[in-house]
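TL;DR need structure tokens for one chain.
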Amino acid sequence: MSEADAKALIERYLAAFNASDSDAMLACLHDDVAHDINQGGREIGKEKFRWFNAEMSRHYEERLTDIAIMVGEGGVRAAAEFTVHGKYLSTADGLPPANGQSYTLPAGIFFEIDDGLISRVTTYYNLTDWTAQVSKAD
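>> reply
TL;DR here they are.
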């Protein structure tokens, strides 16, 4: 895949994220996508990714801004760095209580691309920073 095509694929994926369009995100992924969850485990497959997106939508409302996409030579690997603007909607297991707190933090995703689709999504952000932001008393 060319670098330009890889960049366009990542742009479609992130635009789908910002539109809260899980189906459009899934359309960018391989059936056996490897999903590395921030400070968590690895899940394999679109169905697990679909479930993850549903859980995320239940607990968080997020939008990405200041997106910078970088693509490696040959279009096999890419990365995106961005700012997450979110709202914590409902309490997630093991995390502080939710009451609509807002948060803003830098984050990034690393991608692998195979046969024109994303075959790996690895997300990174500072969970300690996020926890501190949503734990502040309003």
